[in-house]
Write a structure and sequence with these properties.
This protein is of the alpha+beta class. The chain is 18% helix and 27% strand. The protein has 4 domains: 26-163, no CATH class; 173-371, no CATH class; 386-398 and 752-879, Immunoglobulin-like (Sandwich), CATH 2.60.40; 405-426 and 471-670 and 682-709 and 727-749, von Willebrand factor, type A domain (Rossmann fold), CATH 3.40.50.
Length: 887
């Protein structure tokens, strides 16, 4: 029997009141949570009220904007917003906790440049706003949450209003977007050479529509491109119950304000298999919008009722809203047209000429003021994969102050006298006196061909362009003669006998490059005789030859008659052996002295090569051949299956194929060659690589020559590369090629200098402070380049000078991510020497130092301006290099 144990429990004694602080803390927390939940609920309610008020205010502002009379100011629009908000219980003028911002947006949902913000500034409201954005931000005073020091909670609302898709006043005539440029009819030029723009294009100078453009449009035939096409709103029965493709329905849809308000059907299914279909097509079924496909109507309808409706619009001066299309598919009643925008037009005449029906329209631009306001619902910034990147650009202007003496110069001018130099700068020649596209044009214009597809003309001298003064070879030779006049040679104006005379060699080239194609000859040094140099320049390439189909082949006739150049210095022929030309330059410089003693003093020469050409090299150099001609790099020199071989004749003007990297090595017999463009770069590098003397190589290209190899391989730096894609003459008689040659000469001959600077940042580049360079044309003065650090993708945007000269760049849509940013622009300081060229500014200033690039992270933000998140990244850039270096 076990004994029972007695255990004594002695619990610790509690102090009185020990749990009171804990209970008090819990009560405070619970009260805070309840208070905060009550105030959060109240804040949520206030935010919903703010959203509703912002929506109403944006609609009120847009309706006021759409109905505004001429001269309406921003104050009127702003007051419409404020009054609407007040009627919805939000008084932004008396409530310091609420802030209002409002903006005009363009059709892409971007802030209008030069005046996006809506305030009571008294300026006239812009004419090109497509949306109005209203932002509300503020704080709501709390009641209970104050016990936890939360006196206010934030609210925010953003609303957009645009124009409802128009119905009344929209008519079924589709206008081809190819004839539209911005808010004008595109000037078609004078292809028929009758001295007037084609299609009766004109800019009106008098009357109600002074300043607008007018043009004659011809109808599309089924899917065949034309100026316009008849459309229909439905596929089936129309407003009258008749066939939607009938004369009766078309006449009704053209009468009065039209029949679009009675119904619309998009073409379904998606009618163009060769184009990607958006996942949400149609975005708004039964409502005509941009991106919709519209049914076409058969042929040109010329019924009595249709003519009557058109006559009424002409008599009334109706402002007609018409769809503008970019793509047409199908035939007849099965045709479909894709809408890319709407335009406002006035019909002035219709009829028939030369068996073609036509309509004459005046184009007034976007129909922004048609219809009524509707709420717009853009995608929220946080859910989009792109942002808008924009910013101002400032530069630190510098210029050159020349002091001291100039060094003597040894010039070698290399002149292209190949067949393409017979053309004008646009690649045109004359065939029986008629202008034809004989060479590819600067904007990708294809060469003219006959019905069988055969090329009508080429660079042969029999197709040489007239007038002579616009021919490439003439312009190049005259500019080179002008260069001779600028040198320090006896007989020239301003000749300075205190320093040694400048010297010059002239080298000209075709596919053959014998030593005889230079002056003076290889063994007789340079010349300082400007008269003789200009005579040689004039005669360079003046061969007595019969025109040949392909340079280097046996002469043959063209048609029934032979054509001879007869020694004409402005009729050229032959292929492009640029590597051979530079090889001759190497021979010249290897034999030339680098110093000269003059008046008891030793002087060092500056060496300069100026390479003047209009085309890519397409002949191999063979240094074992006395003419350096290794044959043409044509399609037959590429292996079977190579994509360059498939280009056939076009391979001669395809830069990539003329490089070894793409075209590969070429073996003929026991000889293996790099491709001509690669060979050209190799010869240029050999010239520039000499350690004992510096030689600067300038490249002056005329016409739209691909810059591959010429800018980054032959020219000493990209700043030594110049291009004149078109011929531009100034009031002083000089053209742009002359000015480039003068700029090169000034850069070469200027003496020691010191740096000059404005001492402050400049945000504007006026037109007279810019000179076209490297293909840039004012107002495009430079470029911003973004490289995705993850994918390596490259994006570019121009740096543009606005009408006030202020400089900005904009990437309208750029994928979110991290980028390496680079930027450059060209600027010509007015205090630079008169013939100084533009200078490149490309070093980004970060506040303390400069660098060639910077890293930027682009991520959508919250409430901002516009449909997509806009990031402002302003740039300050400084000169690349030294103002006193040759550029």
């Amino acid at each position: 029997m076990s004994k029972r144990r007695n255990i004594n429990h002695n619990p610790p004694r509690r102090a009185r009141g020990q749990s009171i602080p804990l209970l008090a803390l819990m009560i405070v927390v619970l009260m805070g949570m309840v208070a905060l939940s009550v105030d959060v609920g109240r804040t949520f309610s206030e935010e919903r009220r703010a959203v509703a008020a912002a929506n109403a205010a944006s609609l009120a502002a847009m309706n006021t904007y759409l109905r505004r009379p001429a001269g309406t100011t921003n104050t009127v629009i702003y007051n419409a917003i404020v009054n609407s908000l007040r009627s919805n219980g939000i008084d932004v003028e008396n409530d310091p906790n609420i802030e209002l911002e409002a903006f005009y947006l363009n059709a892409r949902g971007e802030p209008l440049e030069g005046g996006a913000r809506i305030t009571r500034d008294g300026t006239v409201a812009p004419d090109n706003a497509a949306y109005i954005q209203v932002n509300l931000e503020g704080m709501v005073d709390t009641t209970f949450a104050r016990v936890v020091n939360q006196n206010q909670l934030p609210i925010a609302a953003t609303a957009y209003a645009g124009t409802c898709p128009p119905t009344d006043g929209v008519f079924p005539i589709g206008v081809n977007n190819d004839y539209i440029s911005g808010n004008e009819f595109r000037n078609p030029g004078d292809a028929d050479n009758d001295g007037q723009p084609d299609n009766n294009w004109q800019r009106l100078t008098t009357g109600t529509y002074r300043g607008y453009t007018k043009m004659r449009l011809y109808p599309a035939d089924g899917a065949t491109p034309g100026g316009f096409g008849w459309l229909r709103w439905l596929d089936g029965r129309g407003a009258s119950g008749a066939n939607a493709n009938s004369n009766q329905e078309l006449a009704m849809s053209l009468t009065g304000t039209g029949t679009l308000s009675r119904g619309f059907m998009e073409v379904t299914p998606w009618p163009a298999s060769h184009l990607p279909q958006p996942s949400n097509y149609p975005e708004r079924p039964g409502e005509l919008n941009i991106g919709d496909w519209i049914y076409g109507s058969t042929g040109y309808n010329n019924s009595t009722d249709v003519r009557g409706a058109l006559d009424a619009h002409i008599a009334n001066g109706t402002r007609m809203v018409l769809p503008i299309y970019d793509v047409a598919v199908g035939q007849g009643s099965n045709a479909a047209y894709r809408v890319v925008r709407f335009g406002l037009f006035v019909l002035t005449e219709y009829g028939r000429e030369r068996n073609r029906n036509y309509m004459d329209f005046i184009f007034l631009g976007e129909p922004d003021r048609q219809g009524t306001a509707c709420s717009a619902t853009p995608p929220p910034p946080e859910n989009t994969s792109v942002v808008r990147l924009t910013g101002s650009v400032e530069l630190w202007p510098e210029y050159q102050v020349n002091v001291g003496e100039r060094l003597p110069v040894q010039y070698v001018v290399v002149l292209d006298v190949t067949g393409s130099m017979n053309a004008d700068f646009l690649g045109r020649g004359r065939v029986n006196g008629v202008a034809r596209q004989c060479l590819p044009g600067p904007n990708g214009e294809p060469v003219d061909r006959d019905r069988s597809g055969k090329q009508i003309c080429n660079g042969s001298p029999q197709y040489a362009w007239t007038p002579l003064e616009e021919r490439r070879i003439y312009v190049a030779k005259e500019a080179t003669k002008l260069l001779v006049d600028q040198t320090n040679m006896p007989g020239n104006e301003g000749y300075d006998s205190a320093r040694p005379s400048d010297q010059m060699k002239i080298v000209w080239f075709i596919h053959d490059m014998p030593q005889g194609y230079q002056y003076p000859s290889l063994n007789t040094g340079f010349s300082s005789d400007p008269v003789e140099l200009k005579r040689v320049i004039h005669a360079a390439g003046a061969h007595n030859v019969r025109a040949t189909n392909d340079a280097g082949r046996a002469p043959r006739t063209w048609g029934s008659n032979d054509f001879f150049t007869n020694g004409d210095p402005y009729l050229t022929w032959g292929g492009t052996n640029a590597a051979g030309a530079l090889y001759r330059v190497r021979e010249i410089l290897d034999r030339a002295p680098t110093k000269i003693v003059h008046n008891g003093r030793e002087w060092s020469y500056r060496r300069v090569v100026i390479f003047v050409t209009d085309g890519l090299p397409n002949y191999f150099i063979d240094t074992s051949n006395s003419t350096l001609n290794g044959g043409q790099s044509n399609s037959n020199t590429y292996p079977q299956g190579h994509w360059c071989r498939a280009l056939e004749g076009a391979v001669l003007d395809t830069a990539e194929c003329q490089t070894t990297e793409v075209g590969g090595l070429y073996t003929s017999g026991n000889k293996t060659f790099d491709r001509p463009l690669t060979q050209m770069i190799q010869q240029a590098q050999a010239i520039k690589s000499r350690q004992d003397v510096q030689t600067d190589i300038y490249v002056l290209t005329i016409s739209s020559v691909p810059t591959v190899g010429l800018r980054d391989g032959v020219a000493s730096t990209p700043r030594h590369f110049y291009i004149a894609e078109t011929l531009q003459r100034g009031p002083d008689g000089l053209n742009n090629v002359d000015r480039i040659m003068l700029a090169i000469n000034e850069q070469v001959e200027r003496g020691p200098c010191i740096n000059g600077s404005d001492g402050e940042w400049r945000a504007t580049i006026p037109g007279d402070h810019f000179q076209s360079v490297g293909g840039l044309r004012y107002p495009n003065v430079g470029e911003v380049i973004l490289e995705d650090v993850t994918t390596g993708s490259i994006y570019r945007a121009p740096i543009v000078a606005g009408t006030d000269g202020r400089v900005r760049y904009t990437f309208e849509e750029i994928p979110r991510g991290t980028y390496r940013m680079q930027a450059y622009l060209f600027y010509r300081h007015p205090l630079d020497p008169p013939t100084a060229g533009p200078r490149m500014y490309s070093q980004i200033f970060n506040g303390s130092s400069t660098q060639s690039d910077m890293i930027v992270t682009l991520e959508p933000s919250g409430q901002g301006v516009g449909f997509i998140s806009t990031i402002e990244q302003n740039l300050r850039i400084r000169l690349d290099g030294n103002v006193c270096s040759v550029n």
